[in-house]
Amino acid sequence: SAGSRPSLGQEDYPGKPIRLVVGFPPGTATDLVARQIAEAIKRNAGWVIYVDNKPGQGGSIGARELVRSDPDGYTLLVTANGPLITNPNLYGNVEYDTLKDFTPIGQIAILPYVMVVNASKPYNSVQDVVAAAKKDPGKLNFSSTGVGTTSHLIGAMFSKSTGVTATHIPYKGSAESMTGLMEGSIDYNFDTSVATTPLVQGGQ
């Protein structure tokens, strides 16, 4: 009829692969959760979805990658709290504004952090670690998943609250940090239950 306009067909979503950006290396808790989500979506909805790891600066490189991508719904970020809450207060160059540059979709996991030690070490409790560290100040060390990450900050808070002096050894992600712990060069570690539970259950 006169005055009618042609209608534009809207493409069904998704019309192309969906990228899940993770600002941490493979094997970290955030990466494992993202991969579980991707696999479940592939299985249940048949969508093509993949994890793209962009590690660095405690997760901020991944967050920055999302901010720089087209806001078309095909690039999503799976992140821990650190990149959005902690890092803007630690680093002056994250190049994003958490409140303005992101649209939150929802919380997908709660991952408690736990202290773990190598089973061959003579520590059977937190009190044992504290006593050993106070006996020889500076002799013990702890690993983290990187400078400024939550595991690093928890380790620093632990030292401050207990009066322990220990050396921080930063690694690039959970897998490397746990390797140092399992090799015996690290005395203790704070990491998520996702990263630590399999090793604890294995008696390691």
Concise synopsis of the structure shown:
By secondary structure, the chain is an alpha/beta fold. It has helices spanning 29-45, 60-68, 81-90, 98-101, 126-135, 150-162, 174-183, 193-201, and strands spanning 18-22, 49-53, 75-77, 113-116, 141-144, 167-170, 188-192.
Describe the structure using short key phrases.
4-stranded mixed β-sheet, single chain, alpha/beta, 15% strand, 3-stranded parallel β-sheet
Task: Please provide a written account of the structure.
It is built from eight helices and seven strands. The protein has 204 residues and is of the alpha/beta class. The chain has a four-stranded mixed sheet, sandwiched between helices. Strand 5, helix 6 and strand 6 form a beta-alpha-beta unit. The protein is elongated. It starts with 17 loop residues before the first strand and ends with a helix.
